[in-house]
Specification:
By secondary structure, the protein is mostly helical. The protein has 15 helices and no strands. α1 crosses α11, α2 crosses α6 (147-186) and α2 (62-88) crosses α7. It is globular. The N and C termini lie far apart (139 Å).
Length: 426
């Protein structure tokens, strides 16, 4: 009997099992934790804070010159706070750290801790290819220790120029009002007394209007890095309206802190103050006065840093809201901000149309609410101006207190009397 398998005429096709689909392994999210030593971070911030205090107050009138660099440094700090907030709201945050994103923008991109003296991104600067040849390379190398100082002064000068272009008119009219009022009083010209009063009220009103605009404009200039951004009145006004409640609280805080720091200036008339001791020499009185204002500057610079940070946070939130709602177009922004929003992929969002009655009701309520907030703002700004007149009536510091309001203009509260600086007794 044959054991050969019988041919049944059917092809024997082997059965192949299909392999199950391989599940895609999600990419590991980038590590966005801070890799820097915490002690080094704390030390770096303390060092920057100490330098800022000494630049704000060292020796009058040098303090008002070095404070220009402080203004520029605060602008750079605000720029970093603004960009970091936008980065957190963008898809780019999933691709790496904020520092890596900034490094990709170039050697002139913002840094979270701006330096006072040394250049930022030294290695990248030395290795970048630039035209200019050997002398340009030597110049870049020589200016490494002071490049940030020059940059701080440059940004400080442009920022203060723009600020005084808006606030200076009110300050100058108030200066005229003050001196005219006293001179008119000494010469018994009572028939012209109304001129000093009216000019003072008009100058105060102009200054109040300017302060309503300036903090948001300073943040816009800091973010854009150009002076023209300060004068984009349409964009800045829409940013103020976008976060009007938070901006009102900011202006209230500014007026309150200004009132608080008027107290140390008025206290200098106290006879119990060490510098007012009639038995000490002029040099000793000058040294004690400088120490007094240096201690006050520690709290002043800390308060100023907090206020500028709050301004940057409110600005970045207002800009995102305005861009996404379409009230501000990306094409209306300066070139740098336009580029940043394109890289961050932050685009306007489609808005769901509201019913006509609902939109009308919302606009009516919003209008009344805005009028109420503007009333509150002007009340606090009136107190801001009033504390100046009352404080200046008690303690007169030449033109400094009239032409400079430290939390808005030059960040310096060095009110050392001029007669001590030149070595004369009062």
């Amino acid at each position: 009997m044959s054991t050969t398998p019988r041919d049944t005429g059917i092809l024997n096709i082997p059965f192949v099992l299909e392999a199950p689909p391989v599940a895609e392994v999600p990419a590991e999210p980038p590590n966005r934790t801070i890799r820097e030593n915490p002690l080094r971070t704390v030390f770096a911030w303390i060092a920057r804070f100490v330098v800022g205090v000494f630049l704000c107050c060292n020796l009058f009138p040098i303090s008002f010159i070095t404070s220009i660099a402080v203004f520029g440094w605060l602008q750079r700090r605000m720029q970093a706070v603004i960009l970091r907030g936008w980065w957190r709201e963008s898809p780019r945050r999933l691709e790496g750290t904020f520092q890596e994103f900034c490094d990709g923008l170039g050697v002139g991109a913002p840094v979270e801790r701006p330096r006072w003296f040394w250049r930022e991104r030294i290695v990248a600067t030395l290795y970048q290819k630039k035209h200019g040849g050997f002398f340009r390379a030597v110049l870049r190398f020589v200016t490494l220790p002071v490049h940030s100082l020059f940059l701080n002064f440059k940004l400080g000068l442009t920022g203060l120029f723009a600020t005084y272009m808006v606030t200076g008119w009110g300050c100058m009219i108030m200066l005229f009002s003050w001196y005219f009022g006293w001179l008119n009083s000494f010469h018994k010209g009572y028939e012209d007394a109304f001129l000093g009063i009216l000019s003072g009220l008009f100058g105060s009103f102009l200054l109040m209007l300017a302060i309503l605009y300036v903090p948001m404009a300073q943040a816009h200039q800091a973010a854009a890095g150009e002076i023209a951004a300060f004068f984009q009145f349409r964009v800045v006004t829409r940013l103020i309206l976008a976060r009007l409640t938070a901006y009102t609280l900011l202006l209230m805080s500014l007026a309150f802190v200004s009132l608080v720091f008027e107290i140390p200036r008025v206290v200098t008339i106290n006879e119990n103050l060490a510098a007012n001791d009639p038995d000490i020499s002029v040099e000793e009185a000058l040294r004690l006065t400088e120490q007094y204002w240096l201690i006050c500057t520690v709290f002043f610079f800390f308060s100023l840093l907090i206020l500028r940070t709050l301004t940057a946070v409110i600005y970045r939130s207002a800009m995102l809201k305005a861009i996404r709602s379409g009230s501000v177009q990306i094409d209306d922004l300066p070139v740098r901000l336009n580029l940043w929003f394109q890289k961050l992929e932050i685009l306007p969002q489609a808005q769901i149309p509201r019913p006509r009655f609902s939109a009308l009701l919302r606009s009516t309520v919003s209008l009344k609410y805005r009028v109420f907030l503007f009333g509150v703002v002007f009340l606090f700004l009136f107190l801001f101006v009033l504390r100046f007149y009352v404080g200046y009536f008690l303690v007169f510091n030449e033109y400094r207190g009239i032409l400079n309001h430290p939390f808005i203009q030059v960040p310096c509260i060095d009110w050392t009397p001029w007669h001590l600086v030149i070595g004369q007794d009062e």
